[in-house]
Every structure is written in C-alpha cells, then in structure tokens.
Amino acid sequence: MPMRDLNVKKAQKLLSRIMEFELAGVVRYTHYSLMVAGPNRIPIVAFMKAQASESLLHAQQAGEILTGLGGHPTLQIAPIPESYKHSVKDILEESLAHERDALDLYREFLDEVEDRSVYLEEFARTQIAQEEMHGLEVRKMLRDVAATDHPEAAAGHGEADDEPKKNKKKKHKKKDKDKARASEERDDA
C-alpha cells in the first residue's frame, strides 16, 4: 500500500494534546501516590510513582516528535478533575478512566498517521500497547479491591467474573437437591 501525505499540522496538534494529557498524568499519579492509605499502601504508591514517571517519559517522547515535526511544545497541561475521593477503589477507577482517555488519544493519533509515516505509526502502536497493558493491570487491581473491600461491587466487572458465581449457585442447588433426596429416602425407609 503506498504511503499517503502526512497532515503535519494535525499531527502536531494531536502530539500537543498527548503531551498535555501525559503531563496531567504526572500530576494525577503523583497526587494519587500521596493520597493512598491502608494496608496495601506501599505497593500501590510504588505503582502510582512508576505511572507518574512513565507519563513524564511519554510526554517527553511526544514533545521530541512534535519539535521534530517543527511544532512548539505547550506549557499547558490537560484539565485534571478532582473528585476528592481517595479510597484505593476510587483512585484505581479514576486511573482506569485516565488510561482509557489516553488510549483514545493515541488511537486518534494512529488514525491520523497510519500509512503516512512508519515511525509515527509505530510510536502510536507502542503507546497504545502500553496503555492497554496499564488498563489490564488496573482492572486486575480493582478486582482484588472489589473482592476484599466491597463484595457487592464485584458483580459489575463483566461476564467472566460472574461465571464462577453461576457455577457455585448450580453446585449449591445440586447439593440441596441431593440432601433433600437423601432425606426423603431415609423417611421412606
């Protein structure tokens, strides 16, 4: 497939938005690392600090590409809403939403550069893969938090999580039927 012309202005604009978003991630994850409390604080703080460092690296990478394309990096960061909710579950849910938004930005960038620049396309794909991996990590962390802190919240995490519950209910019903049958047989004897 032949390469198409790159819309440099649009690529610059998207890279600038990515840079602003990733810089906001530095602030967001640093804030979260300071607000985490509870028995799992230490590993979660380490995770949040690593996320902040990675966001800074991503902002720098986007900035390098932006200036390489003749653009000017912004001094702004994307808006960061503050929920004032700092339970581990709330922090992880907000982190997951942030990762989804980052994924959307990188996918938009990929759509713009696909078949126009191999380097920019590979950059976008690499970032998408990393954001997807972070989303998986956060979802796994949320499953543990939901299971230990809020048992009723575990039901909302997808069909895969509901399947074991259905099997357990079937097993309990079968055991109840077996007990009833055994009781009837004893009564008949």
Question: What do these coordinates show?
Answer:
This protein is mostly helical and 189 residues long. The chain folds into two domains: 8-157, Ferritin, core subunit, four-helix bundle (Ferritin), CATH 1.20.1260.10; 158-189. It is 76% helix and 0% strand. It has five helices and no strands. It has helices at residues 8-35, 41-68, 88-113, 118-149, 159-188. Helix 1 packs antiparallel against helix 2 (41-68) and helix 3 (88-113) packs antiparallel against helix 4 (118-149). The model is unreliable at 150-169 (pLDDT under 50).
Lay out the secondary structure:
Elements: H1 8-35, H2 41-68, H3 88-113, H4 118-149, H5 159-188
Helix pairs in contact: 1-2, 1-3, 3-4
**Oligomeric state of the chains?**
single chain
Q: What is the CA-based Rg, rounded?
A: 24 Å
Q: How large is the share of residues in beta strands? A: under 5%
According to CATH, the homologous superfamily of the largest domain is Ferritin, core subunit, four-helix bundle
CATH class of the largest domain: Mainly Alpha
For the largest beta-sheet, the strand count, sense and barrel status come to: none
CATH architecture of the largest domain: Up-down Bundle
SSE-based structural type: mainly alpha
